[in-house]
Amino acid sequence: MAIVTALLSFASVIAAKLSADEVKAWLPWLARRLVGLAVKILRENQRERYGEEWPGYISEIPGDIGKVLAAIGFVFASLAIHHESSEPVQIRANTGAPDRAGRSAYTPGSLNFGLLPEPEDRSAGFIASSILNTIICALVLYIDGAMRLIPYPGPANFLIR
Amino acid sequence: MQCPPGGLSGAEIARATGLASGTLYPILFRLEKSGWFKSHWEEVSPSEVKRPRRRLYVVTALGEAEAWTAFREVTLDMREPLWQL
Q1: Does A85 contact B52 at a Cβ distance shorter than 8 Å?
Q2: Distances (CA, A) of B59 to A10, A113, B5, B79
Q3: What is the ipTM of this complex?
Q4: Hey, which of A51, A99, A137, A156 would disulfide with A39, CB 3.0 to 4.6 Å?
């Protein structure tokens, strides 16, 4: 039994190492693909600029996971830029004051594509928030499923003597 | 609002502001479109520096003036008593 346990441990260590190496090798490729996707989302006249600017940004970030996260951010950024490049921009110094249409004026930093989406009447914000929400829901369901596989130890028997 | 004369790259602005790339670039896009910022390519050869060129962002005179106006308004608002807001 001890030999089987030792062999299983050895095999799992090797499998973990191989998996880590594999993931590490694929992350730069994934980051490049995501930047490529983000650039494709942009309008024709913006692709050349951001196609050169964003790889430069990525190259300044240390670590492969950071590069992938930044590349995911570029996908959301390109959705927003694509949408905003079609509408006239009016930035007012008076932050928070309503514009002529009665909407709140744009405030730098108010665009939020974080985990908790803000209610926005922009399609880019809606799409980005929907994608993020789907990812979060899938992650929660996955963790829930994984937790259910862990056998329930029952009531705290060690307390009952 | 202190900006180096050469400008800052997107990654440097992200580090300074703590904004993620997905939030930062739409903001930069809007600021540049409205004339608050302007940008230009770094004058280096990618083959020499062995990395892609960086796009450098500089605050324009208009952007600086508008930013100071906004800053003053915010600080004035903060001085007002709560019941006057």
Answers
A1: no
A2: 58, 25, 9, 28
A3: 0.80
A4: A51
